[in-house]
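Illustration 12: Peptide deformylase.
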Amino acid sequence: MSRLPISELTALVDGLLEGPRPLPVVLAGDPVLRRPAATYEGQLGDERLGRLVAALREAMHAAPGVGLAAPQAGIPLRLAVIEDPAEVADDVRQARGRAPQPFRVLVNPVYEPVGPRRAAFYEGCLSVPGWQAVVARHETVRLRGQDGSGSEIDEEFTGWPARIVQHETDHLFGTLYLDLAETRSLAGTQAFVERWSQPTPETAASELGFTMPE
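Figure caption equivalent — predicted structure in token form:
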């Protein structure tokens, strides 16, 4: 687990916050994305943490994306932000269980499955731009952790919100979505938009020759 001395950590965050905005997103291949991040234990203080959270939110919106983990900004701490307006077609919303999610700060999140059901859909990642792949994830999860003010979180998420919190929490443990993906489903963004953007990936499974994960 990455545990920078507090002085080095705060210098890293301050340097990032004083640099270009929106924050650049770290791309796959950088070791910070492959190392479990350190537990957040107040190392940044409230004021610096607040500025970092605001910068992560700005970068998430600019990308645009529905979640961003601190390691994706080069900060090896177990922090992430999520927000999803879910501005999608009705058939997509229904098939994927996509519902609007307000802005949330996740601190030291961990999840566990609730029930055996899994759902497989295409997803992408800001740290792996230009690609999409099918990933089977738990349909419902129980998320525990803290929010940005330190209050405890113990909440169930289902459908697309569950996918978002799993994806972002995985980042904090050094896992990218491609580690879990059906590799034969991998598609460039243009091919995905032109061919496989249906509400579910059954057509892609048939045409690309993979079995839908269970």
